[in-house]
């Protein structure tokens, strides 16, 4: 890739990022957000996390090997950390570290 192509690529990435950041403020300039958009703001985060859980568990062999035990233990650690501290990053990091340790050293 030539220097000109690299500059154009970086510029387009910056433009795309800035457009997605500023577009909601331009569209809803009046300050009143439609009810449908507010509903999506409440409903989509849970739906996205549910979809991520299904995606992460789609390849688990429930009837062979470790029977999905590392995955289930990591999920329980994630849920426990989130109920205890109520901090999403800590919960996600704790569950990930737990899973990695289980897979590398236990199972």
UniProtKB/TrEMBL annotation:
Q: Which residues cross the membrane?
A: 7-27, 64-82, 88-106
The record lists the organism as: Allofournierella massiliensis
How is this protein named in the record? Branched-chain amino acid transporter permease
For this protein, the record's Pfam families field holds: AzlD (PF05437)
Origin, by domain of life?
Answer: Bacteria
Which keywords accompany this UniProt record?
Membrane, Transmembrane, Transmembrane helix
* InterPro entries noted in UniProt: Brnchd-chn_aa_trnsp_AzlD
